[in-house]
Amino acid sequence: MATFQFPNQTAFYKGKVRDVYTINDRLLVMIASNRISAFDVILPEPIPYKGQVLNQIAAFMLQATTDICPNWLLSVPAPNVSIGKKCTPFKIEMVVRGNLTGHAWRTYSSGKRVLCGVAMPDGLKENDYFHSPIITPSTKASEGHDEDISKEDIIATGLASAADWAVLEKYALQLFARGKEIAAKQGLILVDTKYEFGKIGDTIYLMDEIHTPDSSRYFYADGFAERQAAGEKQKQLSKEFVREWLIANNFMGKEGQTVPVMDKEWVTTISKRYIELYEKVIGKKFVPEELSDGETKQRIELALEKL
């Protein structure tokens, strides 16, 4: 994917998955690439249509939650492009968990019963529901791995004031409840997810992507209880299958480890899984759209002129 230069561009940032252009220090143009990352490492092969899948799910979910809180999104001029307001971000990720899965389960199965200052009850099995969803925040690292952090430490270190934290907590739990409702209509369970927020003046805005396969984990609701009772693995829609493949090939992003080779067949499989997730989460057929760099740039510039 080409790097662009736009009129009145004031900054450019290349993230793990997105290229972000700042316009007039007021707007952000976010281009979702087909890059894929796991364990904080960008994998060597791009995944066809992944950028479009992520961008369009996020746009759908942002539009479906505008009654809960204001968000950054203003325009979606191209399949993999979103334009929105530039906020001053809170340097934390609001991770909401409805089930004991992933990092929470790894912590729990090691014998610990507290995660990010939140107590987890005894007697749970992997993937069991928490009594009610819990928030386990992490710091947003500009380099390296994000770190777990408690609400108390967030307030003590000034990452958010107590008043702002109360709003972040309220928004995160309401967004998660809405995400679960949308998922349930599609026969899915929203298991865990992360939200990012920022401020313009005194107003807190929801930023970035929400309820996408890169930021969330979904289980199939059909057969969930039976699989839990039998102690079987849950059927899930998320990026976890990529992580599992990496772990099986002895890669967890640690020093000295080499990213395994991704053959064409595996890249196609990942692409199909992302498209399946789009169709399952949104409940609409995925329509692949490929634009040239020139067309993408033109559409962005037209949208910026209007804004």
The value of Rg in angstroms is 19 Å
The CATH superfamily title of the largest domain: ATP-grasp fold, B domain
Strand content: 25-35%
Count of individual helical segments: 8
Distance between the termini: 24 Å
Structural class of the secondary structure composition? alpha+beta
Unreliable stretches, pLDDT < 50, 5 or more residues? none
The CATH architecture assignment of the largest domain turns out to be 2-Layer Sandwich
Counting structural domains, the number is 2
What is the name of the CATH class of the largest domain? Answer: Alpha Beta
The largest β sheet comes out as:
8 strands, antiparallel
Write the layout of secondary structure elements.
Elements: E1 9-14, E2 18-23, E3 27-32, E4 37-38, E5 41-42, H1 50-63, E6 73-78, E7 81-85, E8 88-89, E9 92-99, H2 102-109, E10 114-115, E11 118-119, E12 129-135, E13 138-139, H3 151-156, H4 162-185, E14 188-200, E15 203-207, E16 216-220, H5 224-229, E17 236-237, H6 240-248, H7 264-282, H8 293-306
Antiparallel strand pairs: 1-2, 2-3, 3-7, 4-5, 6-7, 8-14, 9-12, 9-13, 9-14, 10-11, 14-15, 14-16, 16-17
